[in-house]
Amino acid sequence: MNGPYTDGQSPSFxxxxxxxxxxxxxxxxxxxxxxIDLDSHLPLMKWVAYLLSPIGFLRSLHWRASVIxxxxxxxxxxxxxxxxxxxxxxSKIHPTAYLDGMRGLAALFVFFCHYTYQGFSIxxxxxxxxxxxxxxxxxxxxxxxxxxxxxxxxFVISGYALSYRPIKLIRSRNTKEFSNxxxxxxxxxxxxxxxxxxxxxxxxxxxxxxxxYELTRDFAKxxxxxxxxxxxxxxxxxxxxxxxxxWIWATFNMIHVxxxxxxxxxxxxxxxxxTIPIEYRCSLYLFLVIVGTAxxxxxxxxxxxxxxxxxxxxxxxxxxxxxxFGMALAEWDHIRAAHVSHAVLPISEKQAKPRRNILxxxxxxxxxxxxxxxLSFPDDGWGKTPGWVYLSTWIPEWWVGAKFRFWxxxxxxxxxxxxxxxxxxxxxxxxxxxxxxxxxxxxxxxMHGPVMHVIGYxxxxxxxxxxxxxxxxxxxxxxxxxxxxVPSVIWCADIFWRAVDIPTVKFAKWxxxxxxxxxx
Length: 520
Fold this sequence. Notes:
Layout: H1 13-16, H2 28-31, H3 38-41, H4 44-52, H5 54-60, H6 63-73, H7 82-88, H8 97-116, H9 147-171, H10 175-210, H11 217-220, H12 240-253, H13 275-292, H14 298-314, H15 318-335, H16 347-375, H17 389-392, H18 404-421, H19 423-429, H20 432-439, H21 441-467, H22 473-515
């Protein structure tokens, strides 16, 4: 994202928002400062001596610097000094960087959901059936472990990010650059989504064959500790070849674009990746709508999009509807020039502006709170839960999808609209810590499952062996385990981000540059 790009290689907005910052890590030349180049300084006779002496030859190598770089790579990026901190949160951030931070927290909350639901029932909200009066189940408070609500936010942001630049080019009537940008986005989308998942599940395959999953297999299915949802480990085949064939088929099966089955393409090696086939399928539909409406005037493009959204809504395709909402919001931001610097206002207008700004900010902060409340719609038991009974009657009877997706989806859209106008919420999502989670969001989503099973279960087992599982001590042990499991997941996600996520984007760009038709 730094430096000039050719038309065919311009960075898509998807890569700027919520995926990663593609600036390269420290180069070898920067890392080797102070290391003497023996090739240019040692006399010929000394090189002959080194060739005759293997030990001397090894001493002549730059292995110390290589080892240091290798070890240093495993240090979390936020501890690696100013250069990496600048990569995480540049001094000048993109106007829509708040979406990056929002997606990062959503990924973190999905992890919290999968850590929490194994020990506690989280589908029911505060007051369900005159029970569940715990503080953590109150609306908005419960969002920190609400995975389904976070998924709705994922899909709206993906629709926005994938649409933003194409719509900008459409509105500027730059037909040539639009066609290049769309071709590039479509070509790289598959690699962007499935290359990291292939690598992450292959790592799981290797860990299974090496026996690491066997160390916690009994713990994973022990109802003494996992009292609610049991996430069994992937099966370990007796034959390694059969296991490899099974992994290959599971990886191939994730490319699920020809059906709408519930969690179609689910990968048994990491059951949390069921959203990735949906992301890809909905992306293709979104690209089709963008291209199909590219030559329409703004009014007719909006009318066409609203018609498509109406059909999608009637068909209960909530996930695709979220993508289309993202496209609609992206175009609306372009219409209102949300991310364009405005000219200096006259003095008279400046004097009247502060009062309007204060009232406007109060209004949009309230819109954000409304969105958070709707996102808190319970996954189950809404008909017997205070605060949700009336809203549940508004869910159409013909809605064949999961009922809770209806209001959670609306809440995601309302919240993102509110945040786009709220300086308070934007400031929060643009903060350094939140932006960091935005950078590692995809890596965090891919890594939290295997790390939780291979490393996290050891921490939980150790914690409960100290606290016991009787009464409130069960919760104490759960919290103690989280104190070690959460940092472990973040650390591994940070490594995966730098080792796989960033190189994947670079590889997709490199591959595209090698196979596209060169312009004259």
